[in-house]
Amino acid sequence: MKTLDVETSLLDCLQKYFGFKKFKGPQEAIIASLMEGKDTFVIMPTGGGKSLCYQLPALVSEGTAIIISPLIALMKNQVDALRNFGNEEGIAHFLNSSLTKAEITKVKKDITDGKTKLLYVAPESLTKEDNIAFFNEIKISFFAIDEAHCISEWGHDFRPEYRRLRPIIEEIGKVPIIALTATATPKVQQDIQKNLGMSSANLFKSSFNRSNLYYEVRPKVNVIKEIIKYVKTQQGKSGIVYCLSRKKVEELAQTLQVNGIKALPYHAGLEAKERAKTQDAFLMEDIDVIVATIAFGMGIDKPDVRFVIHHDIPKSLEGYYQETGRGGRDGGEGNCVTFYSHDDIVKLEKFMKGKPVAEQEIGKQLLTETVSYAETSSCRRKFLLHYFGEEFDEKGCGGMCDNCRNPKQKFDGMDDIALAIEVVTDVKEKFKTKDVINILLGNITSTVKAYKQNELECFGKGTEDDKNEKYWNAIFRQALVSGLMSKDVENYGLLKVTKEGEKFLDKPYSMMVTKDHDYEGTETDDDDGAGGGGKGGSGADAVLFSALKDLLKQTANKLKLPPYVIFQEVSLEEMAIQYPIKMDELVNITGVGQGKAQKFGKAFLDLISKYVEENEIERPLDMVVKSIVNKSGLKVYIIQNIDRKLPLEDVAKAKGLSLSDLIMEIESIVHSGTKVNISYYINDIIDDDKQEEAMAYFKESNSDSIADALKELGEDEYTEEEVRLMHIKFMSEFGN
């Protein structure tokens, strides 16, 4: 591979193409490894900046990089984003079944002409003979295999065509390979390296800890009602709700819609055009919530998803980690709420029947780990990271999981952990957790009979003080997380005692254990709606930030691009703190860079300059963020009390406002993009016919003027307050 000019460093290129001043984590070392021509294997969690690890070297290397990606939607997103870093459309292309012959010819011409630095292909496209012949004629800088966990049968998204990649790559020519994945247990990692012939590759494994994500598991009681209540507390924020079945996706999406939430369904049973339309609506922020099966996942690259809800527990922790990883990719807020009932596990086990025995065994083991995660009362972050082969001190969680935020009472499990290790040793490390627990509880099962385990001295030793299966599950879980035992994944999850476990048995020490949660028989459901709360704010100048978001939306609609492709929310927030008014100041805003500044910046700079002038804002270098606490507090109070359906006169009186002043505050809330539902108040004072007439006027009129509306609707028929209230209702229903 061609290296950079001496004068041009990787850091310069990072700033030039992507607008970042420094690399994130191991990005620079990964890029250097690839540019030295070495095979490179990257395990980096969602949001860690994986794609930049192959995008930057592709842009600065001679030839075209071939990026193997599993989803058409993901390819399209990345190509759109890359084209906006520069002014040349041909810089990035994708080659897949969605293209016409004419489009394929255009793609190949751009590659031959040396314009294209990145070509995204589906694994199926790579295997086509005419494509292989074409690739043999061009200069390839390297191959990047994205979502590499698809290679492994132990991964959560196994795709057989991924296992055929290595021979095809070798047929095309010997160039470096970079394989990347966001989820890989030690077992999956070995599988990927073995299949790709990358055992000696440079390995870069980032921490799986996503410190900004909050993990919570709730009992599955009145789940529909609870989801609606939760989403209503997240007004104006983007979120994903995952369900196991297509039927549940459709039902839940409709229920959210009738409860005033902008939501759409997404699953593999919908037409491809419908799925693409729904995804675009989500990216363009025309809807707030997507209700989806796992068919929706890898194709989404939206950085500001603020919540991920699981209506049903996923089949594996890899799947759970991947799906929750869609939240907070920009480093901001990301709440992961899962509803769990043991009934879900029974359903999932039923789905496995009829599959090959080996597949059933793998599925059951993965499911067992998911149950353990859901039912544990210890730190969820520690449990999750341990599953991915990473040690973590729960003190570092900082209350970012429900168990650390609301800890349950612990007890010293030293003696019982020692007993558990003894039993595993007694049965020669040849049995699973469930079998060992049956021995401890003295249960005569077919396995116990077959191996005469009822004759062991330890048989029935774990029954005193009403100890049961749940109790012993918590003990074994603690022993595993603490590294005293391990599971032999390749042998059906058989328990093994580690060297650390042997030391513990020689010299036991105090070890605190928390009893597991009990979710037995929790699943009930309803279709009721529910009210919610207010909306949080950011540390930036809220008025300017709101104006910038409006401009971003207009620009996005005009260019038919998702807003974040132009500028991410974090960039807008920084603009609303730093007040850049010159191009060289805008270039220094996080995530902007020269290309984006030149391409999109002028309108944003004009808006900020005007705002700074009109509001006489001083812009010292050490700008202190303006405080808007009181104003914000009033707005939150108003929203909360409207949600409670209090009469507006009462809300105004409580804050010493006239009704007209309160309506002005509500207008301000609505114009900033927040939806409020004052129908309960309007229905009491304006009859249905007048409401319909007013709504029809606002739908057809291009004017935002209340005076014009009052004139058109008739001053003898409506008061000014009635028109203003109907305008608020219209804006909330159709604008926000």
Note the main attributes of this structure.
736 residues; alpha/beta; Rossmann fold; Arc Repressor Mutant, subunit A; seven-stranded parallel beta sheet; six-stranded parallel beta sheet; 34 helices; 11% strand; globular
What does this structure look like?
- With 736 residues, the chain is of the alpha/beta class.
- It folds into five domains: 10-205, Rossmann fold; 213-355 and 362-389, P-loop containing nucleotide triphosphate hydrolases (Rossmann fold); 410-514, Winged helix-like DNA-binding domain superfamily/Winged helix DNA-binding domain (Arc Repressor Mutant, subunit A, Orthogonal Bundle), CATH 1.10.10.10; 542-614, Orthogonal Bundle (DNA polymerase, domain 1); 629-735, ATP-dependent DNA helicase RecQ (Arc Repressor Mutant, subunit A, Orthogonal Bundle), CATH 1.10.10.1390.
- 48% of the residues lie in helices and 11% in strands.
- It has 34 helices and 17 strands.
- The protein has a seven-stranded parallel sheet, with helices on both faces.
- Helix 2 (27-35) packs across helix 3 (52-60), helix 23 crosses helix 27 (593-614) and helix 30 runs parallel beside helix 34.
- The protein is globular, with a radius of gyration of 29 Å.
